[in-house]
Amino acid sequence: CGHDDYFSTNPPADSYLASHWNTATSSFLAPATGALPARLTLAGATTITYGDHATLSGRLTDQQSGSGLSGRPVNLWAEPATTAGWQQAGTATTGPDGSFRLAPAPTATTAYRASFAGSDQHATAESAQVTVGVRTRVSARKSAGTIRRGQAITVTGTVSPNHAGQRVYLQRLVGGAWKTAATATLSSGSRYTLRATPPTRGRLTYRVYKSADRDHAAAGSARQTVTVT
Asked: Would you call 58 helix, strand, or coil by DSSP?
């Protein structure tokens, strides 16, 4: 103050820093000597569908006694596959047993970790990383439930989020395995139209499949059943 630095490790009794903010006495810069070690865990769902919420839970405890630390703030950090760097994704307050729950809605496969900034009694703590995979959401609508032999079945739908230019596959269930019957490229609006002529009569099962990419896990639509007479 008055062209002096805003800190002093030993300010005179009548000086400005003796009675005002003094960086040298900040608890954030104080040595952690004597602070008890804390332990922070994080676990949760491994794969969800785009648009859904992941369920993440954890617990903050005293590392030596194992007892829960209640009423403590915990921060959630996220690093999506589409973005470099960590960003804050939520906060929670621990319950009576030190537990907490968070429900983020990642739009792409995302790594998460939790952190505790410490307190007067306990040191800082950080959890291990948890990765939540995100599948694309593939909608599908068939043109008819029953067709004659030789007619084609048409399936239309969308892939969310937008994956314009990537491919989707119409697959038929044959002997317990999925066989590709047709393929299409997603439009600028992430829409598709797929057509295939069933090779046999009977009750046939189809799905639309989107393979995995860098930011999303593989996904299939709801099954589409067609009867060929």
From this structure: strand
Instruction: Quickly list DSSP for 130-171.
Output: EEEEEEPEE--EES-SEE-TTPPEEEEEEEES--TT-EEEEE
As beta bridge partners, residue 187 has none
What confidence category does residue 194 fall into, taking pLDDT thresholds of 50, 70 and 90?
very high
Q: What's the rounded Cα separation, in Å, for the pair 211 and 169?
A: 9
Spatial neighbors of 31 by CB under 8 A, at least 6 apart, are none
Look at residues 193, 44, 192 and name the one whose alpha carbon lies nearest to residue 131: 44
Q: What is the pTM of this model?
A: 0.78
Alpha-carbon gap, residue 182 to 201, rounded angstroms: 18
Q: What is the pLDDT of residues 118-168, one digit of tens each?
A: 999 999 999 999 999 999 999 999 999 999 999 999 999 999 999 999 999
Token pair 């839970």 is found at 57
Q: Strands 146-147 and 224-228, how do they pair?
A: parallel
On whether the CB atoms of residues 71 and 33 are closer than 8 A, the answer is: no
> Coil, strand or helix: which one is 7?
coil
